[in-house]
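note to self: dont lose this again. the chain is below, predicted strucutre after it. 123 aa total, dont forget to put it in the shared folder this time
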Amino acid sequence: MKHEAASIRRTQILNAASHCIAERGFERATMDDIACTANLSKGSLYWHYTNKSAILQALLDRFAEELIGLWRVRAELEPSMGVVEQGQEALEAFVSKRSLLETWVELLHHSEARDRMSQLYVN
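---
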């Protein structure tokens, strides 16, 4: 297997994790499942993420960055954009990406994920 840049591997892992979590749920998705879905060895997976909680944190950060990015673009186009419009952007993102919605819903059941989301939205 070709050696890829760390950022490419992390993206590959997060995509696989999102798929596994959406399909099996956070608790039932295993590091083995994620490694297999990403087509990586477990060693490679653990090189980038120490455990499933670290993957969870990275997924939440990625989701937040994606949504905040959408809001920034929209705010540049519509400077008067408010909370309702931000909510619509989030809803449109969830509707257009089923795995994002399924993963997000699954993560809402996880207390560590809820705590992390609270931190993201406060900061």
